[in-house]
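Onboarding guide, step 5: your first structure request.
Type a short instruction followed by the sequence, for example:

Predict the 3D structure of this protein.
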Amino acid sequence: MSRLFLMLFLACAASVTKCPTALAGPIAVPAGLTAGDQYRLVFVTSTSTNALSNNIGYYNSFVTNAADLDPALVALGTTWTALASTPTESARDNTNTSPSSMSVPIYNTAGQLVATSNATLWDGSIAHSIAFDENGVPPIPGYTEVWTGTGTSGAPDDPSDPLGTAIPVWGDTKSAMSNWIDTGGYYEAAGNHTMYAISGPLTVVPGDVNRDGVVNGLDISVVASNWLQTGMHMPGESSSQQVANGLAISLVNSNWLKTAGDATTSSMVSASGQVSVVPEPATIVTAAIGGLALMACRRRRA
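The system replies with structure tokens like these:
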């Protein structure tokens, strides 16, 4: 890993053009979160399906296929489940969002807070609507119907409500009131509508400088093109250390190719939220050489 890391730094140093940056798309890491913070993402699919199946696995596969349409969501390395209920599975159980269970904040793909916890997801209203799809953009104007089969509690209110019955209940994607999940209206199950998808728990990875949910060469390019500049958001550095410097390099190297969906990182987060990096022996050497390469890269661009 260290050899590849060093090669990337040296390649940057030899270049006279600016390294590439990520394209616009869904916000993978919402603003305000720092290294070690956990969260979940939710979106409405740009694709549609009928509600004829009574198997929750069908709907989980459907929303996963929608998430796979955007490389930025694929890169997170997480699982996706449907905020939907069938006769045998409630939405809150399918998505592990029971109000009584341990939870994390939930954001839409525009970076807006939807709910601070599982409890607030199912308390009758949400902070912002889930009106953005897997690409981080609103669906077709006027097209707001989403299959849910679910009441405001996260479970069906009536045996006739779930997906897989004759006329399931639906939600309104543009609403932040109770009808985001349950409008009280019904459609024939054969009709095609969108669905809500929610990720598994995600963690802000130290070294994810460009905030795309994965530590890779793009983070190297950001550090290289901003070498020793202050005011940048460097996950893992305290407010007094917001500088593109050797610590930033060490964070990238220590967490190379880790994603927000990974269960662990090579860094330890204290109770105060401060990240303490424990680099491999070779990391320190790589960081030092990498720093020289970065300075060379900056001088060549000047």
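Each response can be followed by summary notes, for example: The first helix runs from residue 2 to 13.
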